[in-house]
Design brief:
heterodimer, A: 441 residues, 2 domains, 6-stranded mixed β-barrel, 15 helices, B: 4-stranded antiparallel beta sheet, binds adenosine-5'-diphosphate, binds magnesium ion
């Protein structure tokens, strides 16, 4: 019973000629195909951006901060004991615990002053005369290699800060912080020391790359003149999705202030969530439009085969059989469109950078030619489709999520079958006598 | 001889605006297996209405149709009218009603495929039937590529390929020129005789009506046998 319906549905889609697909089939195919292609591309970019943002923040910032008070003003003197104790208690959740100092400071360079954020970390660990950086240390973009940092008073600065302040590797800057404390209480005296810029780093987060100065912890302790104490214990967890649960565990063992990254960067995470909502809406709209496309196309297939429906019924095909034929046309179109669309989408996503580069250069070539030919002394200002300095990416972040694509394919195929149910049901309810008396269409 | 078809007081009305038009006013017809019956009548007499009821394309307002001992109302009650159509009838219309997207042989195979017969067997049966109607050389053509006379012979092949007990033809020669009409009548009469088919043909044309052994006239919504 199924075979005949598939045979007929396929013939309706293929047409009797040598063409690959009939007109109707082509239209609905193109609808689903374009939808799926665009969906994959848009979502790959969206996912890529989100991941990049999230990663840049999770890589550089501590996931959980432990301090003695919420203002981070109290120094932690016995931090090494705490560090060992906490690590032993929570080693199943925790990747690393480090003592850090993080504080605003004043940077002076000749006559320029700038406010910056110091971050002092236990870095680097000397190991066979090489310095090994922690796993999540931001990328050092200059100089190549990692041998620059801790010779004497040296620091790393963000690559954007280097550009903004015109700093080069080897330049000297001065850092000013309060002496003997982490706050500006009454009667504070400043502590000032020169530092050599040992290199530039890049986190992918503009705020950090333009504001943060990285120091080795012992250097910072000297600068603050605070002995061997730290301001915070910085925790990296194994699973960033379990931040809340891990926070509860720390609250049991650390009787002071515990703050997660999500609490500190509330706005950032709220923005990420909003983007996710927008993304979901886009997916939803794509699916709706594909469904409408399938409904219209199936409706057309039904209408142009009205006479066949009458004949098939007169020859003894059941209503269910007719229903099946026209559901299958939608189903086949949906499957073909979804699968080829997703494959094309993946291909385009992977090649997106070169495609955009090609578009840019084509636009600029044509534009320059146009300006020279038609505008008197015309100058063409080069177009950048994705301005690098605005978006702050050195390459387009593309992330293709296979699980998500499977879902898209499954949903598209299922829904295209469901969408065609409406016109297919109408077809199944047509009365053969009317069609046959009417003499066809 | 056994009874193939029996109708009992078939009544069919159409609503025409405010008016109820009673097209069939109690049609009683008994056809024996292997009989060739014609029903003559002027245009609008209700011939197509009767044939559509016999083919279960439409339902009577009252009365009953019994084919091979089973009432059509029984099929309807079970939701199996499509099985009745496929198993009991073979239909031929004035317009050939071939499906344009399918080749000649595929069109002929259709009743068998709908029944669930496998493709190979259906193709063999269809080929044989097409040979019988003299179109063995046209099997892979599409309906638009063959003439009106040929199309109507394909329709005959399609109506008979699954060997239904009842062949119903509604003005089958209505669209044919006189030469093709003659050939068609000869073909129908020959196949009827060869296969011992039960055929009911309705027409307003005398030559076709006269080819049948039993002849009726439809007038005033009922049938009168004419000698
Ligand atoms: N669906 C319908 N609604 C109203 N009147 C109809 C309908 N179908 C047929 N009729 C009327 O029934 C009568 C018989 O029609 P029909 O059976 O086609 O006659 P014939 O085939 O003998 O020419 C005609 O008067 C026709 O107008
Ligand atoms: Mg008629």
């Amino acid at each position: 019973m199924r075979k005949i319906q598939f045979f007929i549905a396929w013939r309706y889609l293929k047409g009797k000629g040598s063409a690959l697909l009939s007109m109707n089939a082509r239209l609905s195919f193109i609808g689903v195909f374009t939808g799926a292609t665009l969906l994959v591309i848009v979502l790959s970019i969206f996912n890529g951006f989100q991941r990049q943002l999230k990663m840049s923040i999770f890589e550089f910032d501590p996931h959980i901060r432990l301090s003695k008070d919420s203002m981070d003003a109290v120094a932690i003197k016995d931090w090494k004991i705490w560090k060992k104790k906490l690590y032993d208690e929570l080693s199943s959740e925790v990747e690393t615990i480090e003592g850090i100092i993080q504080s605003p400071a004043i940077l002076r360079r000749k006559s320029t002053i700038e406010h910056v954020f110091l971050r002092a970390i236990e870095l680097p660990l000397q190991n066979n005369s090489y310095y090994t950086f922690p796993e999540h240390f931001p990328k050092i973009v200059e100089p190549q290699g990692m041998n620059a940092l801790p010779k004497g008073n040296s620091c790393l600065i963000g690559a954007e800060m280097a550009v903004n302040l015109g700093l080069r590797v080897g330049d000297t800057i001065e850092l000013v912080v309060p002496r003997g404390q982490f706050s500006l209480q009454l009667g504070v005296t400043p502590s000032l020391r020169p530092f050599t810029v040992a290199g530039f780093f890049k986190t992918g987060h503009y705020q950090y790359d333009s504001r943060v100065v990285l120091l080795a912890l012992d250097q910072a302790q000297n600068l603050f003149a605070i002995g061997d104490s730290v301001q915070q214990l910085a925790v990296r967890v194994k699973d960033t999705n379990r931040l809340r649960e891990v926070r509860q565990k720390f609250l049991v063992h650390w009787p002071y202030s515990v703050r997660t990254l999500e609490e500190e960067q509330r706005n950032f995470f709220a923005a990420l969530r909003l983007e996710k909502t927008i993304m979901t809406t886009i997916v939803f709209l794509f699916i709706i439009s594909a469904m409408v496309g399938i409904i219209v196309a199936t409706y057309n297939v039904v209408r142009s085969h009205r006479r066949d429906i009458g004949i098939l019924k007169a020859l003894g095909m059941s209503d269910t059989g007719i229903l099946l034929i026209f559901t299958m046309t939608g189903f086949i179109m949906g499957s073909l469109g979804a699968v080829t669309g997703i494959l094309t989408g993946i291909f385009v996503s992977l090649k997106l950078e070169s495609i955009i580069g090609f578009l840019e250069s084509s636009i600029n070539t044509i534009g320059a030619w146009y300006a020279q030919t038609f505008q008197e002394g015309g100058i063409w200002f080069k177009v950048q489709l994705i301005p690098r300095d605005v978006y702050y990416f050195d390459h387009l972040p593309i992330h293709i999520d296979p699980a998500f694509l499977h879902t898209v394919a499954a949903v598209a195929i299922l829904l295209s079958g469901m969408a065609s149910l409406i016109p297919a049901w109408k077809a199944s309810q047509m009365e053969p006598v009317k069609i046959i008396r009417g003499g066809g269409d | 001889m056994s009874v193939c078809l029996q109708t009992k007081d078939l009544v069919k009305r159409y609503r025409d605006g405010e008016l109820d038009v009673e097209v069939l006013r109690g049609v009683n017809l008994t056809v024996e297996t292997g009989e060739f019956v014609s029903i003559r009548g002027v245009s609008g007499a209700g011939k197509s209405t009767l044939l559509n009821l016999l083919g279960a394309l439409d339902t009577p307002d009252s009365g009953d149709i019994i084919v091979d001992g089973m009432s059509i109302r029984e099929y309807q009650r079970r939701g199996e009218l499509h099985i009745y159509r496929n198993a009991k009838t073979g239909l031929i219309f004035q317009n050939h009603y071939l499906m344009p997207d399918f080749s000649v042989i595929e069109n002929v195979m259709m009743p068998l495929l709908i029944r669930g017969e496998n493709g190979k067997k259906a193709r063999i049966a269809a080929q044989e039937m097409l040979e019988r109607v003299g179109l063995a050389h046209r099997t892979t053509h599409f309906p638009e590529q063959i003439s009106g006379g040929e199309s109507q012979r394909v329709a005959v092949a399609r109506a008979m390929v699954h060997k239904p007990p009842l062949i119903l033809a509604d003005e089958p020669t209505g669209n044919l020129d006189s030469k093709n009409r003659g050939r068609f009548i000869d073909l129908l009469a020959r196949l009827q005789g060869d296969y011992q088919l039960t055929v009911i043909v309705v027409t307003h044309e005398d030559d076709l009506a006269n080819a049948a052994r039993t002849q009726y006239l439809m007038a005033e919504g009922s049938l009168v046998q004419t000698p």
